[in-house]
Amino acid sequence: MTTPIHVGLLGIGTVGGGTFEVLRRNGEEIRRRAGRAIRITTVADLDTERARRIVGDGAEVVADARAVIADPSIDIVIELIGGYGIAKTLVLEAIAAGKHVVTANKALLAVHGSEIFEAARRRGVAIGFEAAVAGGIPIIKALREGLTANRIEWIAGIINGTTNFILSEMRSKGLDFGVVLKEAQRLGYAEADPTFDIEGVDAAHKATIMSAIAFGTPVQFARAHVEGITALQAADIRYAEQLGYRIKLLGITRRRERGIELRVHPTLVPSSRLIANVEGAMNAVVVQGDAVGTTLYYGKGAGAEPTASAVIADLVDITRLHTADPGHRVPHLAFQPGAMAETPILPIDEVVTSFYLRLVVADEKGVLARITGILADNDISIDAVLQRESGEGEKQTDLIILTHDTVEGRMTKALAQMQALPTVLAPIVRIRKEELS
């Protein structure tokens, strides 16, 4: 009988506990697929008492992660510690020790992925990271293998469940951001410190990884444009709905002639699109390929067992290829290391998109003409105009404008000119709009 593959687990929090449980429950099914049993034999966690309560007598528990890495019987190390610090050190040490690594650490890979993948290539080991993007949705495998015949044109994803829950609640209940955030924290959808989620950083980590795989470039998180949802107002969600759109926090990466767009920000999406109807804490990713057309991947983006599903899928892949020649494994970023491209990430001013604008203006003759004149002078064409009472009295009104596609830098210049008008009474709201067609 083939001997089991031995796995060491670093960190047994929510996802680690889920991974241990799913492996225990579905072990025989997984063995039949992988060709040999997969067993977590050692768990490292600083809280050894809690770890022992989770694993019982199913695995050895230690406090020192390096003891796992040094154990010659361990074939694969799962890193579920998170962050950029000790996690990076331990992953590199595991690689140096000849261990394959499975990680759910999107922050680590988005910032230091190029270094980690190169170290793994030199040592001949594999890095599995399906769980790093969109939880249980197998989007990494789809991009890296299932769509390998395609020239990927663009990706747009709801890849942070916390922000999607908040936006869904703001839309359905008409509440402002701050009120819904407190409710999300009470229900456990948002952390006590939700900064990485609500400021778009978590989504940008994931978009960075998908972009590198889609276009065969190094991971370049530092060049991503990142905006969160903290400034969104209930009024704009309501107006978007009246115009046939919903606002989602999207991670977008798109191939352009002069480079690659990589951006995360609130986005108006036509309400007829499937992705616009993804509600609550669910995730969804749309991928446009030249041969396959549009594909949609939907499911739970977080949680113990959905994420464990992705961790174990990587364990199975590595188990199947454990003894294979490293040169015949699927490349970490889909493209062969020598074929990676240094395609530039475009600065936000060079991005092409359309816009939703909301201006609070004096309710007097000639205001609309001056504003549309500024847009025309900057070669920005208008798709639709909506005028609504602002609710702040009869002497001002909300002016909502949808534009056609334009270069962002051109819009920035036009906005500065409009903001300088004495009849524009408040900071102009600008939200990007994507048709995703």
Give structural notes.
It is elongated and about 80 Å long. The N and C termini lie far apart (53 Å). The protein has helices at 14-25, 27-34, 48-55, 65-70, 86-96, 106-123, 139-146, 161-173, 177-187, 195-198, 201-215, 234-242, 304-320, 367-377, 408-419, and strands spanning 5-10, 38-44, 60-62, 76-79, 100-103, 127-128, 152-158, 225-226, 245-256, 259-270, 282-289, 293-300, 352-362, 382-389, 396-403, 406-407, 429-433. The strands form two sheets. Strands 7, 8, 9, 10, 11, 12, 13, 14, 15, 16 and 17 form an eleven-stranded mixed sheet that branches. The protein folds into three domains: 5-137 and 304-339, NAD(P)-binding Rossmann-like Domain (Rossmann fold, 3-Layer(aba) Sandwich); 139-300, Dihydrodipicolinate Reductase, domain 2, CATH 3.30.360; 353-433, ACT domain (Alpha-Beta Plaits). It has 15 helices and 17 strands. 37% of the residues lie in helices and 25% in strands. Strand 4 (76-79), helix 5 and strand 5 form a beta-alpha-beta unit. By secondary structure, the chain is α/β, with parallel strands linked by helices. Helix 1 (14-25) packs across helix 13 (304-320), helix 8 (161-173) packs across helix 9 (177-187) and helix 14 runs antiparallel to helix 15 (408-419).
